[in-house]
Every structure is written in structure tokens, then in C-alpha cells.
Predict the 3D structure of the following.
Amino acid sequence: MSTVSPTERRLETNLSDDELLRLHRLMLLIRRFEERAEEQYTRDRIGGYLHLNIGEEATVVGTSTAIQPDDYVFCSYRDHGVALAMGASTQQVMAELFGKETGVAHGRGGSMHLLDVKRHFLGGWGIVGGQIPIAVGAALALDNLEKPGAVLCLFGDGAVATGAFHEALNLAGLWHLPCVFVITNNGYGMGTSVERSSAEPELYKRAAAYKMPGERVDGQDVLAVREATQRLLRLARDERQPSVLECLTYRYRGHSPIDPGKGYRTPEEIEEWRGRDPITLFAQRLQERGVLPDNGGQGIVEEVDREVQEAIDFALQSPDPDPSALYHHIYGEAAVEQFARMAPGAPFGERSISPGVVTQDTAAPDTPDEATLN
Amino acid sequence: MAQITYRQALQQALREEMTRDARVFLMGEEIGEVTLTPSKVTEGLFQQFGPKRVRDTPISEEGFIGVGVGAATLGLRPVIEIMTINFILVAMDQVINHAAKIRCMFGGELSVPMVIRLPVAQGSQLTAQHSQSFEGWFANTPGLKVLAPTTPHDAKGLLKSAIRDDDPVIFLEGLQSYSERGEVPETDFTVPIGLAAVPREGSDLTIVAHGFAVRRALRVAERLEGEGISAEVVDLRSLRPLDMETVATSVRKTHRALCVEQGWPTYGVTAELASRIQRACFTDLDAPVERCGGAEVPMPYARTLESAALANDDKIYRAARQVLTESGMLGRGVGRDGGAPSGNGVVRSGTPARAVAG
Ligand SMILES: Cc1ncc(C[n+]2csc(CCOP(=O)(O)OP(=O)(O)O)c2C)c(N)n1
Ligand SMILES: [Mg+2]
């Protein structure tokens, strides 16, 4: 129940070259995807919020690729990287950001609510801490159904202060549920540092209160993150022992595009973290081992660039959801009949102004002037 | 009088009340040392009043709203800012089951003089969990007062009244209004709780709204004027208590009522209004009271869908035309695609149908 010191860390040496390159490629893909998404946002092709993983790639890839096929993953609204690392289609993820019918949530959820049910990625969630009890519920379901998998639940350092965190971890500890709680500690929740939000800033220590092992790893080291996550997932699967893993990382960008990310952090601090860039660090290690092909893996960079460009093209060409589908996905099938007697002409009992016709706003800008927040 | 923004007006109210009364203090996420709130209303107050009067909190809404309730019972006057209305949901127990109950449950021995400021907005593709208007839930609760200023003047005057009030007040701010400018007196003034305003007078139709919907209603009234229809707009300003006197006086004059809200209308603010209007003005009405609100769906992300879900100007305009049509003031089918119910020329409750316009 203490920090794993670097000497104790058993590095994963049994990974094949292909596997190592896969991790490298995934981190590059996330970096490139996020940079291009940011650019598309400034071109007004993406709206709402946009929370980027730039700087956190090792934590995202190290955790998400540690799962077995029977496991499930939940995370916060900072979810693009997790979706990609889980194997969701780059094109469909980009299409979701563009609000297209071809997106992973058919344009209903946008950037914060990605998912890929087939690959067991159960979502991006927008309310801080909200996904933690839900992940515990998934672990309970696995347990009750005597399924072999475990649940990996990711959330930020800010979420540790929520009531949902405490209640959920206590339940998981009490009921011996197969769940690994990953704190992606990027130092800040919006503009509030961990020191200013947590009475105990060594967040992994909270685990002790729920009789769980708690560990802290270098979140810039993809292999260290992966090794720890794999080990804790095994513990969850095999011994029904939940645990906490804190990954120390950093987001280079602001909280979201409206936050320049500077007022509450010094330029020196940002530079220091950039000096430990997870992709550069890993590329160096691969280079040392002679794993990177042709001039430092330039071919992979180009391949990833192409993949992201194709995703943008796909998103651009995809159709917008049809306004007539506004009432799709609100309830299951049974609702149509159940609501039928509430009011004529209105899909779900709503007093419809003009039945069947949904109009576009012609006169009013619906944009909050602050283009808003988090 | 100075022209200032809605944001500046709110900040003036906070600064003046904090200066006037040492018991007033602020709590919330990102409100102090760093001001990353969408409202930015508290900018500079931490520097002026220090960390005990402007308390930054972790993401612990249930915790710090409860802390506010406790501090209020001992006589402090907490003014809490929740980043946006959406995040108060995790703290509803402290609001509904504690703050609202304490005075009565303890036989008047304790009270909770607390203000909770909630920026509200829909739109901007903020999606289901961040784009909603459920103020009706608060207005449904005995023990709470619920205010919703639309103009900078009312923002300042009502916030000062709220802070001086001895009961818990839910204070709804328009996230789309912070940069709106308006005239605000520099003197120490308050706007009384429980009084609606009539920002536009008219004779053919009353549009009742609160918050951002008032601005929409005013735009629609303008559009209707171009068609020869004179619409009056009532800005509720206060949802609980509700100024039915002003609403009923207006409807008795215009004989037609359209109630508008940004949120879901079913069991909502407009449901309450419609019920009270039909009871207060039954014999004066020339048409059934109409309501207009957001589509009853979790707010979708895609622009096409979001635009269809919002209670936008166009929908309000159509609803207004519908009331006028139903009262016989407009010809059948005008403004709609032939879907107008009958009512052309119908005489209700002995009131003659008014002259046809538009
Ligand atoms: C309950 C709740 N309160 C406030 C917010 C607004 N908000 C969104 S993200 C955020 C900061 C979260 O920080 P952290 O958990 O560290 O995650 P990070 O953004 O750093 O990935 C806040 C305060 C929210 N979404 N939910
Ligand atoms: Mg964080």
C-alpha cells in the first residue's frame, strides 16, 4: 500500500516488438487526433466542450491496453484517447465530435460521451465522479453473473473529492467487487491544483480507507502504467480484490479550449513536464532497443497522420442526424404505446406546437456568449 | 445611470453586500484565487476580501452546500456559486431535504439565510448532462424562494434582496446574459422578491416568461408587431413566490396567454402558470392558454437535433400565432401549415372574438 519505487518496478520485458510498436503507434495516434480535433474545433466543425488528452497518452494507453477481452472500461469526459486506445474506429470517433449520424453515439453525445459497446468501452461521462458508482455496478454485474472479467474505471484527480468516489469505493471494498480505480492525476481539476483540493494530496492513499491496495506510478511511462494496471486487474479478476492506481501525468493544454491553461500554472512547470513527454520518452526507449524502424519511425507518424485525415474526411462527408429523429433513443419500444394516450400528435406526451414538423431557429443565436466553461 | 453588464451588476451586488455585512461570504469551485467559472462574477473578490470570505472548494457540491446550510444556521450568510445548474444535482438532498425544510421542521427555531447562484443555459452543443433548465423542480419546493433576473438592473437588485433575505434562495442567472448591458443605478437599491415586471406592453397577447426566454419573448413580440399584433411580455423575475397579480392583470387585458420556458414543459413552470391563469382569468380568455418549452428529450449534441430541441424564437412565434388563431384573431391556418384547430371566430365565454389582424 505504498508508492512503488522505480527499483521495485518489474518492467514488462516480454512484450514483442510488434506489441511495443502498437503502444507507440496508439500514443502517436491520440496525440495527432487531439491536435487535429483542436484545429477542427477552431474551425467550428466541433462544438460544445473539447477536453484533450495531449500529454496524458502514456496513462491512457497504458491503462486501456491492459485489459483482457472480458474486462470493461469507464472514463470521464476526457475520453477521446481511451476510445481510440480501446480500438474504436478513428473515423466514427471523429464523426461523433462532428455530431454526425455515423458517430459512435450517432451524434447524440459528442466529445464527452464516446463509447464502444462491442469493445466493452462503456463511456465517457460528464458529471465529475458520476461514472465511479456506475463502474462499480458493472463490477457487481460481472460478479453476480459469474463472468470472468473486471472493470477498469478511470477518473481525474478532481473526482476524488466527490461523494460518489467515497461511496463507490466503499461499496467495492465491502462487496469485494472486481474493479480497478485509476486516478489520472494530471495535477489539476480545471484551475485547482491537487494541493488546493485534497486534504491528502497523495491520492492513492485513500485506498487504505477501503481496505484496498493503492499504488502510484509514473503516468508518463506507458510500460509502468500498463504493468501496474495488468497486475491490479488480475488481482480484481482472480481474488475479487479492488484497488486504486494513481498515475502522475499532465495535460499540456488548458482544461478545454476556452481555458488557455496558463493562469494557474507556471511556464516552468509546463516546460518541465514537456521535458518528460510520454511519446518522446518511449520513442527513445524503442530506439535504444532498436525497435523503431526507418528514421525514428517516421513511417508510423505518416501513417497516423493519414488515418486522422481520413477520419476528418469521413466526418465531413457523413450526414447530420435528421431533425425528424429528435425523439429517437429516448425510451425503449414499449414507450410508443405507453405514451400514446398522453396527447395526440406528440411523440412523448409533449404538447407539440406543430405535430411532426420540427423547425430550425432562424432568428436567434442559441450560443451562450461565453461559449461556456468546462 | 451607468450602463453595465449583467456580470458587473452581480459583482457589484456581491461586493456591496460583502462590504455592508461581514457575515456574507462566498463559496464555490474556481471562484477565488483562480476564477475559471463560466460566470466570472466573483473575479477580484478573493483579492479584496481574502480566503475566508471567498472560499474556493474542491468538486464537492453536496459537501459545500451542506456546509453553507450549517454556516447559515449559525448566522452567517453564505452565497454559493455552483458552476452551472447541472452540478447542483449531486447536492439536491442538501437543498431540498435540508435547506428548504429546516425552518418549519424545527418549528421556526432555526433558519437558513443562504443564496445559491446557478448559471443556467441551454444550447452551444453542451449536450444532455450540461444543457438543461430544471428550475421548476426548485420552484416546486416549499421553503425555497426562486429568483430569475433577466436584466442587469434586476440582477443587482434581486441579488441584494436575496442576500438580505432570511430564507434559502435559489438564484438563477442567465449564462447567455452575462455580457448583456443595461442601466443600473449606482445607489444602494433592491428589487423586491415576488414582483414580476412588464418590459413590453401590448393589447393582443400576453407572453409570460422568465430568464433567457424573456429575451426570446421580446424578440418574438417585435416580430409580431411587424404583423400588426401587439404582444405584452411579462418577465416573472421571481418563480416562487409567483406574482400572479401582474400575470392575471395582463391576461385580463389581452385575453390571450402564451407561457414560455426553456426547460421541459411537462409538470414545469408553464404548467403552473397555465393552471393559475385559467383559474384566475377563465371568463377573460379567448383561447386556451398555450405553452411552449424545450422538446422533452435529453439535449442532443448534433446541431440539427439541438436546434430542433430548443425552445427557440421560431417555436415561440408559432405558438403565439397558434393562440391568436385559436382565439379567432387570425384566419384559420395562418402561420401554420393548415394544422390549426378550429376556433376561427369561436366566441368563448361571452367574449366577442377580437378584430382580425395579420
Ligand atoms: C459534479 C460536477 N461539478 C463540476 C463540474 C465541472 N467540471 C468539469 S470538469 C471539472 C474538473 C475535473 O477535474 P479532474 O477530475 O481532475 O479531471 P481532468 O479534467 O483534469 O481530466 C469540473 C470542476 C462537473 N462536470 N461535475
Ligand atoms: Mg485533473
